Structure formats: C-alpha cells, structure tokens
Amino acid sequence: MFKRAMFLVLALALSCSAALAADAAKEIKIGFVYVSPVGDAGWSYSHDLARQELEKHSDISTYYMESVPEGADSERVILSMARKGYDLIFTTSFGYMDPTLKVAKQFPKTAFMHASGYKTSENVGNYFGRIYQSRYLTGMVAGLMTKKNQIGYVAAFPIPEVVRGINAFTLGVRAVNPKAEVRVVWTKTWYDPALEKDAAISLLDIGVDVIAQHQDSPGPQEAAQDRGAYSVGYHSDMSRFAPEAHLVAAVWNWVPFYLEAVDQVRKGTWQPKSDWPGMESGIVDISPYGKMVPEDVRATVDQRKQEIVDGKYVVFSGPINDQSGKLRVEPGKVLSDQELISFDWFVDGVVGTMN
Amino acid sequence: MMSGWRIVSRTEPREWGSVVIFAAAFALSLLICGLLLQVQGKDGALGVGLLLSGGFGHLYSYGETLLKAIPIFLCSLGVALCFRLQIWNIGAEGQYVIGTLGGTWFVLTFASLPGWLLLPGMLISAMLAGGFWACVSAVLRQRFGMNEIISTLMLNYIGIEILKYLIYGPWRDPAAMNFPVSPYFSDSAVIAQIWNSSFWLDFGLSENIVDVMAQLCGRAHWGILSCLIAGCLCSFFLQKTRLGYEITAAGSNAKAARFAGIPYSRLVILVMFICGALAGLAGIQECSATLERLEPHIVVGYGYTAVVVAWLAKLRTVRIAFFAIILAGLRVGVENVQLELQVSNSFANTLEGIILITVLAGQFFNDYSLKRKFS
Questions:
Q1: Do B286 and A6 touch (CB under 8 A)?
Q2: What is the pTM of this model?
Q3: Contact, A320 vs A329, CB < 8 A?
Q4: Is A94 helix (H, G, I), strand (E, B) or coil?
Q5: Res A19: pLDDT
Q6: Looking at the structure, do residues A98 and A177 belong to the same domain, yes or no?
Q7: Given an 8 Å threshold on Cβ–Cβ distance, is A64 in contact with B23?
C-alpha cells in the first residue's frame, strides 16, 4: 500500500538530483569535518577561524560540516566530501581516524589530513600542535595566582591528549609553586556546557580557586566567574565569557599551518606525514593576560615562553615523578614523542584517577 | 444557512487514504523547509532538492540510507512489539548498547574460534545480553510495579556508563595508544558488505557493472538479512500464532486479558526480551560491520529514533521498514543540505524535526475526519 508513496518520493527525489550545482572555474576545494558546533569558542571554533581566513582567498573554496558524530556517521560525511571532489579534507577529531583512512583508500587522488591521531597512509597525513607547551605556561600563571594552592581541572576524556595537557599544566604549576595541587574531574564530554559548568562548580565546592579546562564550551569559565574564582581557558581566548575570572588561555592558531598545507596541495608537493609543530611555529600560543595578572607574573611566564620558543626549555624534561612519587623521567632525559602520544599516567601534583 | 467544520472520529481506519495523507504532509513539510531556507537567504528549492537527492537521489545514496536504516528498523520492530502490549519501552538505546557489549565480549573472549562459530556466537550473545537488559525493566515492572518508562530510560544511561567503563578500562586496546577503543574484531567476526567488488571482478563481471553496483550498495552490509528475517518472523508471530494474538488482545485490555486467562506477566517479559534481543542485534551488527571494533561512538540515538519510527508506522511491520528508510534517508539528505548550502547543524536538525512533526501531525487525519456542519 505504501508502494505508490514510495514511487512518488523516489520520482520526486530523482528529478531533483539534477539540480545539483555545477562547479565553477579551477579553484582548490577544502573540506573541514568538525566534531562540535563551530560557535562553541572551542576546538572546532579554532579550526573554523582558520577556515574563514582561507575562504578569504579568491582561489580557495572551503566547506565545513559541524557536529559530525564520530564513528559510522563520520565515514559517510568524509565520503561525501571526497565524492564532491574536494582536493584536501581536514578531519579534526580523533574518532575520525579510521573512517578517514577507509575513505582515503577509495580516493587516492584526494589529500586527507587527520588531526590528533597517529596513523598515516599514502594519502592521509596526521597533524596536531604542541599545545601542551601553552598548557605549561598557563599552569605557571595558575600556580602563581592561586591563594589556596588548590587548582581544579575540568577534563574531557581520559585519553593521551588530555592527560598530556593535565601533566604539562601541572608541571607548570609545580615549577612556580611546589605546594599547589591540581584536582581533576572527568566530564566524558567534549561539548556539554551545562555539565561542564557543573563539574567546575563541584571543584569550586571543594575549595579550588582556579579552574582550568579541556572542553569546547566556556561553561567552566562562567562557573569560576560566578564564584569569584580565577579561570584558565582553552582553545581560544575565552575572556569574553568570564572577564573577571579569565587569567589566560592556551590558544590555537591554525591559519599559517592550513595555508601551507593548501599551498602544498596546490603545487603538488604535499606529502602525508606526521606533523607536530610547536610554539616556535606559532600554531600554539597563550592569549593576552587578564588585567588581574600582575606584572611580575607576566614577566616570569613570558621569559619561560621565550625559552620554549628558542628550544632552550623542554616541558617534559626530567626529573619527573608520577603520582606515587616514583621517578619516571631521569634528570637530563626528556619524554619521546612516542611516549607523549600514548601518555597514560599522571605526574606528581595531580589529584585524580585515570578514569 | 450557517456552516462550519467539525471533527469526527473515524470508525474505519483509512487504508489508501493514509498514503495520500502521508504524501500531502510530506510535501507540506518540504514546502515549510524550503521557505525556512529562503528566509535564511538560501535557495529554498535547491535546498529541498538537495535534501531529497542526498537521501534518495544518487546511486550511492541508497547504500548509505540502507546502512542507517538497518539498526533503526531492528530497534523499531522490537519497540513496536512492546507498544502493542502497551508496554512503553523506551529503552532500546540501552538494550542496543548492552547487546553490543555482549557481542563484543564474545568476540574478544573467543577470538580464535572458527568463523562459523564466532559470528553466530557473537550475534546470539548480543541478543541474549540485550534481551536480558530489557528483562530487568520487565521484571521490575511486574514484580515491583515500577513504571517501565522510567526504568527503561534510566537503564539507558546505566548501559552507556557500563560501555564507558569497559572501553576506558578492561577492553581498551593496548595497541591503540591508550585511546578508548577495543581491539579490532577478528576478520571472521566482521559482517561483510553486501557488494564485494573484487569477488565479482574475479567472477568475470564487467568493470562497469561492478562499479555501479559498488556505488549502489555502498556500505550496506549483510545485516539487512537479519532485518528481513526478523520482519517476517514478527509478522508471522503477530498474525498467525496464538501468542501473537494474545499480545494484541492483552494490549487493548490488560484486565480483560487476565480474566481470559492470558498470562500477562509472561507476555510482558517476552516482548521486552524480544525487543532487547533485536536492539542488541542491531547494536552488534552496526559495531561489527561499520567500525569493526567497539568504540564509544556506536551510541548515536537509534533507540530513540526507533520510537519515532514505531509511532509513524502505527506499529505495523511493513510501515516500520518504510519509515526506517525514510528517516535514515532524511538524515543522510539533511547532511547533504548542510554541506552544500553551509547551513548550521542546528538548522539541519530543525529541518529534520519539521518533517517529522508535520508527518506525525498529519496522522491525525487517519483517525479523524473533518466534516462540513450544516445547520
């Protein structure tokens, strides 16, 4: 009985398929797949700022798709981007790794770049930035600004990227304030403003006076402001959400990196590789300080920042103890990239568990 | 002479008329979508075209739509069975999750079994686990009088937490750099895609045909068979067996059914178990066929979509299949609009919502007529 309706719908659909717009002249088409909404002030927002910069170039067209669930759905989205003939596709969440590789196999002429993973193939590169360097610096600010020596960290998922951030932050805190502790709670969300705010409130309830975060929403920032505490932002300058609380933020600047990748694809020199640039390239940085951060704190942190940029200071250099006090990195040694990519333990000074 | 309209309840449900109503409501909803797009400064007609062509207009749309329809259909079939008995099970989501866990457990534990044991073992284990999870609510309801809407909903969250615990803990793949994913399933536990290009090429089929078929079938997998089997069994069960009749009878009047000697409690447990088993089957198939391992991302709300489908379909099996495909296609089509017209995700979700609500609202006219009133 539904046959007739089905035919009706199909006929309608088939007749409409011809309406697909044809492409204009020779321009390079770039696709972006985001895991969260672009208006979130967070991770996807930071990529989208760069996308908008690319779009300003007359010979680059960009397309994005936001809030794409990781897993089976993402494969379809990446697939349709590849089918539409995009030249370069950025997939910006860890869960897109296998789907990206699967699609890339079917479209050997398309360049794919996957952020925050670890696999590459003939036409899939991966990339990330050493944001942990910025985390370390923001940790120093937090360590110098806390009065109760209790800092809260609202964290997303217990995966290496987040653990690495917590550890770098804590090393920064401890470098300037050996008595301070960093208390971690997991929200198991990337973007849930209400839940993330509540998690920050639970930390404020047990007496922390600085809130740091690793999520896409500014919820924790708002919680800190409501309670008269300080906060440290992530992804982008979040000071507009909590002007009284926002000390500083670890921020991304993807523009130069993306421009370069696009340029390589255009010239045909693009190669799939694992790219992990640091602060020296400008891909990661810290935001301007809030007005409550005194001059001497700024000077201390700026000096360390310069040392990191110059390659004179390495964040994960020994001696580093783990939570139990056991020496994990010998003095004079540094953690390898391989170890950083699979971080699964907390440094001394973190109060919290791995799940 | 005064005239007006009044609403009259229909004694006979519409048959062919309901098709017309659906088509009209669907067309109306597309019109609203087009207008909304126009208000946003986009080309409305193009948008509607993109919506339909994304889901149903390209060769490759069908495989994608079918792929997504499989879990929706299975979950919805089970949910509809519960609804027939007026058991308001909205826990297909949790049963889907626990079923996936059951299947994954089997695959990880008995990875070395031969394929002809591993695959069925995985499916059965998933169905038992999903069924068991649903039975928890059924028993709570029959033993302690706990409202099943609350218990099934709450158990969804508990199921998802158990998934997170396992995937961040014991089942985390050590080779995956501490990311929350299980080890890959062994090849024999992966449900294959329907179209196997290299097989048919070897078979001697021409390259063009193979290419067209590969596009048409896309990622759709053999789980489609389980839909056909489950659908047929369910229809047979409801129409031809005594138990099936008892479910329909007890659904329309539980008290009378008890007086008539129908074992109501057992029926409740039975339908809940079947629903859980079907949802579990949906979960493990989705997991095995598309991701080939357990990831937290398998939870995407099919269990809730299933409830919508069951209502749209008025609990009837063929219609469930139809609406599962329509809803899956809409999702795929809405993505096409999002990508081509660069509208936001919330706007795309709004379009999807408008279509659903309009079609649901249109069903009012299946049960009621507007009659001209003369006085």
A1: no
A2: 0.89
A3: yes
A4: helix
A5: 39
A6: no
A7: no
CB pairs under 8 A between A and B: 129
> Shortest Cα distance from A289 to chain B (angstroms)?
32
- List chain A residues with CB under 8 Å of B29: none
Question: For residue B56, which residues of chain A lie inside 8 Å, CB to CB?
Answer: 9-10, 13-14
Token reading at B240: 């031809």
Could B49 and A38 be called an inter-chain contact, meaning their C-beta atoms sit closer than 8 Å?
no
Task: Flag whether A206 is in a domain.
Answer: yes
Q: Are A143 and A171 in contact (CB under 8 A)?
A: no
A30 and A73 share one domain:
yes
Comparing CB atoms, the residue among A8, A67, A98 nearest residue B345 is A67
Q: What is the ipTM of this complex?
A: 0.89
Task: For chain B, list residues with pLDDT below 70.
Answer: 1-3, 375
Domain of residue A300: give its range. Answer: 131-251+283-351
Chain B residues whose beta carbon lies within 8 Å of the beta carbon of residue A21: 46, 340
Rounded alpha-carbon distances, angstroms, from residue B13 to A2, B10, B17, B20, B23: 15, 7, 9, 13, 17
Banded pLDDT at A26 (limits 50, 70, 90): low
Q: Which of B177, B219, B286 sits opposite A341 (nearest CB)?
A: B177
Range of the domain at B171: 69-330
Domain-embedded: residue B355: no
**Which residues sit opposite A321 in a β-bridge?**
A327
> By the 8 A CB rule, do A218 and A241 touch?
yes
DSSP per-residue string spanning A253-282: --HHHHHHHHHHHHHT-----EE---GGGT
pLDDT confidence of residue A11: 47
Sign of CA dihedral A53, A57, A59, A61: positive
d(CA A44, CA A51): 10
How far apart are alpha carbons A158 and B88 in whole angstroms? 36
Return the residue of A nearest to B336 by Cα.
Answer: A80
Task: Closest CB to A159: pick one of B54, B64, B178.
Answer: B178
Contact at CB, B286 and A72, closer than 8 angstroms: yes
Which of A78, A110, A127 is the C-terminal boundary of a domain? A127
Q: What residues contact residue B290 under an 8 Å CB cut-off, 6+ apart? A: A71, A72, A75, B67, B219, B221
Query: Is B46 contained in some domain?
Result: no
Q: Kindly report the CATH number assigned to the domain that includes residue A324.
A: 3.40.50.2300
| Predicted pLDDT at A18 | 37
Contacts of A69 in chain B (CB under 8 A): 297, 300
| Å between A59 CA and nearest CA of chain B | 18
Same domain? For A76 and A215 the reply is: no
pLDDT tens-digit series, residues A264-302:
999 999 999 999 999 999 999 999 999 999 999 999 999
Q: What are phi and psi of B264, to 5 degrees?
A: -60, -50
Last residue of a domain, one of A90, A109, A127: A127
User: Can you give the pLDDT at residue B127?
Assistant: 98
Mean pLDDT, chain B, rounded, equals: 91
Question: What gap in Å lies between CA B112 and CA B91, rounded to an integer?
Answer: 33
Rounded Cα distance between A104 and A79, Å, is 9
